[in-house]
TrEMBL record:
Signal peptide: none annotated. It comes from the Bacteria. This is Diguanylate cyclase (GGDEF) domain-containing protein. It comes from Nocardioides terrae. The chain holds residues 463 to 748 of 748 of the full protein. Residues 24-275 form the EAL domain.
Length: 286
């Protein structure tokens, strides 16, 4: 399915190139090549349950190193992919790799899910639930192995279609999280209109120590709880941040203070060591 689509997507890159700047169009052509050659890689950042201390989820984050060795950040190439019609193949690639990894973790006996960022464009793409179902089935995985983080809901084309898409995904037992919650992108309207399982509080809010910022943070966590959603806090950078989020009632925490994003081999080792350490502390034997 992916192969058959390549030609069309190649053309859309070319067409975008005729109106965009030359530099951008050559970067888009490089991105297409990187996707085709499977050169986009993933790094993985753990998320830890506050109560048990266990790593319950690992977020997959895309990385692209150009042929000349310069890294392009996802904040550049994800919007570029959206603009030139490459977001679907990019997402297929990241989901495929993320699910390959979670399969390996689960085979090692780890009860961990992988979390993938889903571009707003794809939240209203009716082909996405079928695609996810197929990728799960190919690996013998159930939907509880996958979380999809959605953001910038202002950019979602049709709320009605988005609601259907997300409902179909949840019917597969895939969980949906609203990412960057409290950053201004994720509006209250989204909370009302879109089916969600959790919210992920934006790191800027987590790290805003002004009285106003703290009030906002507290309110956002309470709002999530009132709506019966679980609350993840991203961007925890120090012990005091961890203490604060714990006492405010976050369910899950993530950030450099706990662990940085790491390559696949490293995350596997980290997950095994961490699970063994928690088992030892709590007297669990496997
Ligand atoms: P995000 O999903 O909100 O991911 C969190 C970003 O914060 C990541 O940056 C992560 O490396 C960084 N981070 C994690 N902990 C800390 C911390 O304690 N302090 C600070 N200062 N930063 C922290 P990254 O990997 O550069 O990703 C940036 C954004 O790009 C992501 O934000 C996400 O929206 C997007 N992105 C990344 N990978 C993908 C992808 O595969 N698909 C899509 N659609 N978007 C992606
Ligand atoms: Mg995210
Ligand atoms: Mg986030
Ligand atoms: Mg963020």
């Amino acid at each position: 399915m992916y192969r058959a689509k390549r030609g069309r997507e190649g053309v859309s890159v070319y067409e975008a190139g005729t109106c965009a700047g030359a530099e951008e169009s050559s970067l888009a052509a490089e991105l297409l090549m990187a996707i085709e050659r499977d050169e986009i890689t993933l790094v993985f950042q753990p998320e830890q349950a506050v109560g048990s201390g266990r790593i319950v989820t690992v977020e997959a984050l895309a990385r692209w190193m150009r042929a000349d060795g310069t890294p392009v950040p996802p904040s550049t190439f994800v919007p570029l992919a959206e603009e030139v019609g490459l977001i679907r193949p990019l997402t297929v690639l990241t989901m495929r790799k993320a699910l390959d990894e979670v399969l390996g973790w689960r085979r090692s006996g780890l009860d961990v899910a992988v979390s993938v960022n889903l571009s707003a464009q794809l939240v209203s793409d009716r082909s996405v639930p079928g695609l996810v179902e197929e990728l799960l089935r190919e690996r013998g995985l159930t939907g509880d192995a996958l979380i999809l983080e959605i953001t910038e809901t202002a950019a979602i084309g049709s709320v009605d279609v988005a609601r259907d898409v997300l409902q179909d995904l949840r019917a597969l037992a895939v969980r949906i999280e609203l990412d960057d919650f409290g950053s201004g992108y994720a509006s209250a309207r989204t909370l009302r209109d879109i089916p969600l399982d959790g919210v992920k509080i934006d790191r800027d809010l987590v790290n805003d120590h002004t009285p106003g910022g703290r009030t906002m943070l507290t309110s956002m966590i309470q709002l999530g709880k009132v709506l019966d959603l679980y609350v993840v806090a991203e961007g925890i950078e120090n012990e005091s941040g961890l203490d604060a989020l714990r006492s405010l009632g976050a369910d899950v925490v993530q950030g450099y203070h706990l662990a940085r994003p790491m390559p696949p081999t490293h995350i596997r080792q980290t997950l095994l060591e961490h699970a063994a350490a928690v088992d030892a502390r709590t007297g669990v034997t496997r």
